[in-house]
């Protein structure tokens, strides 16, 4: 076997092994997307009912709450960025980080100081590498977030917004996550979580246009709102975490699919080259034999005379 | 046919129970409250505790609810809880062990949670 041919054979073997791995990862990601989507669907009833309740309090009373009142001169804002713990997901993390950076730049243009909170090792690594300050970070649960994780993330954020701005609190809370539109499309979006505009909530509510009854609040509208709003924020963060997880798995699936396809193309090309090299070896061998034989024939023909 | 109300018991990550009922008893921060069909629209904060649902076929469903809300309007009652379990899903031995552990660790929150679970089972 020629040296050239051996090199090609070796490369084909290694690419085939890689292809097997990416194919397996693609299939794992595909099954996880389905699971993650199911979790998003399972969390919907709670979110819907909660939104309905918030709408009811918002429209049924004139209660003021720190989580719904806008500061006159917002000077500090918190940005919560959701990324994943692991890479191999195409542009998933860089898109989310880019969206967060655009949002940060916009907020800074508006004269606000920005505190960054990050979920996911990838985002943390990005900010640490650039030696930027991270107010708080969470890692380790991005593949399958639980409601407890969402609570853990929400707690310091709610605390920060309830604190006075002068004592290190924030006036606004923004969240950047990757929305799961479909298997093929996931978009990084940013939205303002707090202060909550009750009017917007009412518009987003699935019961739009329905006239809500006059509720009897137990114990009082203020207390209900007090208890309700943090739960609402938690549920929004939970939903964002779940969507982000589903998007990550979909992005991984797509990235791994194109890796598998590329490996297939590469193997095809290398096989062609290997065939050509083998053919060249054979041709050379034949011409060597033919050349050698005719030289021998010439030599014997000469000595006979 | 007796009047009925539609009940949805939902936890943060799943829908726990839904169906028709004639009476729902839950504990709000200002005391136990019973809701029957035709109740005035209500929105209340729940204490952690057992919730009793009398279904329209006479059976009783008990669930351990750890904090949350009750809302009733248009003959539809929703119980929202971060964590909710039906009493038949609760593993009594595990809850007892959790109670012991919580007591020895002086973890008031976990103790309360285990206690609510056990009370829900007892009320079954």
What is this structure's SSE topology?
The complex is a heterodimer of chains A (305) and B (124).
Chain A: H1 3-60, E1 76-82, H2 92-109, E2 113-119, H3 121-129, E3 136-138, H4 147-162, E4 172-180, E5 186-194, H5 198-204, E6 216-218, H6 221-304
Parallel strand pairs in A: 1-2, 1-4, 2-3
Antiparallel strand pairs in A: 4-5
Helix pairs in contact in A: 1-5, 1-6, 4-6
Chain B: E1 5-11, E2 14-28, E3 31-35, E4 42-46, E5 49-55, E6 60-66, E7 68-73, E8 76-81, E9 83-86, H1 92-105, H2 108-122
Parallel strand pairs in B: 1-8
Antiparallel strand pairs in B: 1-2, 2-3, 2-5, 4-7, 5-6, 6-9, 7-8
Helix pairs in contact in B: 1-2
Keywords (chain A): ATP synthesis, Cell membrane, CF(1), Hydrogen ion transport, Ion transport, Membrane, Transport
Pfam family, one (chain A): ATP-synt
Subunit structure (chain A): F-type ATPases have 2 components, CF(1) - the catalytic core - and CF(0) - the membrane proton channel. CF(1) has five subunits: alpha(3), beta(3), gamma(1), delta(1), epsilon(1). CF(0) has three main subunits: a, b and c.
What does this structure look like?
The complex is a heterodimer of chains A (305) and B (124). By secondary structure, chain A is an alpha/beta fold. Chain A starts with a helix and ends with a helix. Chain A is elongated. In chain A, strand 1, helix 2 and strand 2 form a beta-alpha-beta unit. In chain A, helix 1 crosses helix 5, helix 1 runs antiparallel to helix 6 and helix 4 packs across helix 6. Chain A folds into 2 domains: 61 residues, ATP synthase, gamma subunit, helix hairpin domain (Helix Hairpins, Orthogonal Bundle); 221 residues, ATP synthase, F1 complex, gamma subunit (Pyruvate Kinase, Chain: A, domain 1, 3-Layer(aba) Sandwich). The longest helix of chain A is centred in the last third of the chain and has 84 residues. The model of chain A has no long low-confidence stretch (mean pLDDT 87). A 5-stranded mixed sheet of chain A has the order 3-2-1-4-5, sandwiched between helices. With 124 residues, chain B is α+β, with helices and mostly antiparallel strands. Chain B folds into 2 domains: 82 residues, F0F1 ATP synthase delta/epsilon subunit, N-terminal (ATP Synthase, domain 1, Sandwich), CATH 2.60.15.10; 33 residues. Chain B contains 2 helices and 9 strands, in the order E-E-E-E-E-E-E-E-E-H-H. In chain B, strand 2 and strand 3 form a beta hairpin. In chain B, helix 1 packs antiparallel against helix 2. Chain B is elongated and about 45 Å long. Strand 6 of chain A pairs parallel with strand 4 of chain B.
């Amino acid at each position: 076997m020629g040296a050239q041919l051996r090199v090609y054979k070796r490369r084909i073997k290694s690419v085939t092994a890689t292809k097997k791995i990416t194919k397996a990862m693609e299939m794992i990601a595909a099954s996880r997307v389905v699971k993650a989507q199911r979790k998003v669907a399972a969390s919907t009833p709670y979110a819907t009912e909660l939104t309905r309740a918030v709408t009811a309090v918002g429209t049924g009373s004139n209660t003021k709450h720190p989580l719904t009142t806008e500061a006159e001169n917002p000077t500090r804002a918190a940005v919560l960025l959701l990324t994943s713990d692991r890479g191999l997901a195409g542009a998933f993390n860089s898109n989310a980080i880019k969206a967060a950076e655009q949002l940060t730049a916009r907020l800074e243009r508006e004269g606000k100081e920005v505190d960054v909170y990050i979920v996911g090792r990838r985002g943390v690594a990005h900010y640490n590498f650039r030696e930027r300050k991270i107010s708080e970070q969470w890692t380790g649960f991005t593949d399958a977030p639980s409601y407890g994780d969402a609570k853990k993330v929400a707690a310091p954020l709610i605390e920060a917004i309830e604190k006075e701005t002068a004592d290190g609190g924030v006036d606004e809370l923004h969240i950047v996550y990757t929305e799961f539109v479909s298997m093929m499309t996931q978009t990084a979006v940013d939205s303002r979580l707090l202060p909550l505009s009750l009017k917007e909530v009412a518009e987003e509510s699935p019961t739009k246009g329905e006239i809500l009854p006059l509720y009897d609040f137990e114990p009082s509208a203020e207390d209900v709102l007090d208890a309700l709003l943090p739960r609402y924020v938690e549920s929004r963060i939970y939903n964002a975490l779940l969507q982000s997880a589903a998007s990550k798995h979909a992005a991984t699936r797509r990235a791994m699919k194109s890796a598998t396809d590329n490996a297939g193309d590469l193997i095809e090309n290398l096989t062609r080259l290997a065939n050509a090299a083998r053919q060249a070896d054979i041709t050379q061998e034949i011409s060597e034999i033919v050349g050698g034989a005719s030289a021998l024939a010439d030599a014997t023909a000469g000595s006979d005379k | 046919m007796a009047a009925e109300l539609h009940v949805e018991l939902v936890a943060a990550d799943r829908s726990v129970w839904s169906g028709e009922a004639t009476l729902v008893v839950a504990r709000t921060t200002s005391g136990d409250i019973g809701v029957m069909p035709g109740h005035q629209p209500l929105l209340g904060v729940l204490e952690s505790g057992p919730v009793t649902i009398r279904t329209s076929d006479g059976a009783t469903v008990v669930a351990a609810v750890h904090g949350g809300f009750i809302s009733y309007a248009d003959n539809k009652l929703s119980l929202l809880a971060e964590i909710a379990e039906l009493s038949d899903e609760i593993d009594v031995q595990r809850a007892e062990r959790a109670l012991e552990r919580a007591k020895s660790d002086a973890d008031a929150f976990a103790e309360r949670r285990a206690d609510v679970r056990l009370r829900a089972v007892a009320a079954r």
